[in-house]
Amino acid sequence: MIHLEQITKTYRMGDNVVHALRGLDLSIAQGEFIAIIGSSGSGKSTLMNILGCLCPPSSGVYRLRDRAVEHLSEDQLAEIRNREIGFVFQNFHLLARTTALDNVMLPLIYAGVPYGERERRARLALTRVGLGERIDHLPNQLSGGQRQRVAIARALVTEPTLILADEPTGNLDSKTTEEIMALFDELHEAGNTLILVTHEPEIAERTRRVIRIGDGQVVSDTRNPARQVTEVPA
Amino acid sequence: MKVKAIFVLGESCRSAAMAIRANLFRAFLTALGIIIGVASVVTVVSLIQGFRLAIERQFQGLGSNSLTVSAYTPPMDELKGLRAKLSQDDVADLRAQIAGVEAITPTLESVQETRYRGRTHSTFVRGTTPAYLEVNATQVDGGRFLVPQDLKTRNNVAVIGVKLAEKLNLPADPLGTHFQIAGEWFKIVGVLEKKGESFGFSMDDYVIIPYPKATILQNEMGAPDISVQISITDNLALTPMKQQIANLLRRNHGLKEGEPDDFRIETQEEITATFGELMNGITLVIGGVVAISLLVGGIGIMNIMLVSVTERTREIGVRKALGAKRNHILLQFLTEAVLISFVAGALGLLIGMGVSQAVAGAIPQLASAYTPPWAAVLAFGFSVGTGIVFGILPAMKAAALDPIEALQYE
Fold this sequence. Notes:
The structure holds two protein chains of two kinds. Chain A is an alpha/beta fold.
């Protein structure tokens, strides 16, 4: 479903040229639950930006659902992000002074969904992440875990091909981390494709496949078929 | 395609409204410049236009069926020291030879010093005839106006305006009181109805004396400069009558074919129109000066919108990550600016109308304010235009942001 071939990305930072990705190959199938790990500077953030269609690669092939997206324009990428990708960020990135419901409805605006339908789908997504009661709360009235749930509902609401979570538990305590990870497990069980970018081994351990990035390339790619969703630690 | 455009526009209005609501106080401060700008333009225009309307009504009091004939000296002749005059004979001939005249009166106006019990005051002294009342559609409040007898006997009688009575500190009932005009004693026989003030300029600071008396007062300073007011019986005869008058005066003044008229015949409508043009000119100049404050308001909008874009960089990043295209962001910020200036324009309009009414009410010298529809539309359109012009730059800046950088912005 996702196919990366010889992806490179180079930045110019002042006079230096930074090779963030150097010929990276990667294939991801539908319904996978993946962790991308790597130290800072390894290129994992760049990989996430490319996977998330936030920027095009410098060279290489990126097929998302059999569509080549590496040469698309800024606005075309925006459309792909809107339809195919659901983002979950470390800092939640909810709009301030905007209710949970309005936050979740936001991507549907850009998808051109009319208001009534938008609200219905947003309520559904919020119920799914366990926040059906708090739809009218503002972000600052919610705990960190609840905010991240709102963000996950926002990622789900467009029914994207891929949910891309960047350090989704980085700002959460261990208990809340557990809750959010359980929620990801649920989403995985329901057939969603999930990619977690993280530097925490404990988080990575809970996924089915761990891809380690180093020096702009895939260093290791290990599957963890033994792990069962149901055995959630207490 | 059209449906989609409406959808996008509707959504950007909705999200602009949300953003404004989220930052209501700042939006208000942003709008303040426009509100004040529009309010002051509307106030100024309303006051001047109200004044204009009041004056026009006063002119209409004279009736549209009246003419004023006055001497006119072309500027070149005036430089040579020549002065065109209407003579006593002209007046007599006009009265005798023009058909359809309902009332006719010569008017001789000069500024003279008046004196009563040691108080002096310079005022307009108008020499005229009993027909003055009819031509000017005015009346006396107390006592009597000039009568034909006054003209024959050359009585030293005067009919005064109320402002003059006040200036000279005349008794509360001034009838029968004697006072001096240019050193000569006059007896007050009547008081004219009060006309009020316009722009602090009293319409009641004058005295009317018999026409022959005024010519004597004036003769000491050379030939008098007469103007003639005529009211006519038939409105439709106005144009032919103007021609008749012109012919008569040209003959009397010995003007040859091709020589320009040395007089002017103006109808009330023409005078009103000239005045209206003058007032519109003043409106335009003062309104234009005040409109600069709108420009300042617009710069205020741009400033706050630029701050807003910087402050909301992460929001823009989030919106872009969630699929907002350039145009979505552009339209969102532009709509916000336009919405603010739209509401500000409406508020400014209402405030301006209210303030101008209040000012007109508080200062009796001013006529009641009148906001012409064109001024309302103009002020409103101008403020919305300001929103577009000064909103476009910040909106473009927002639309051009890179999503990754915007998301990482601290």
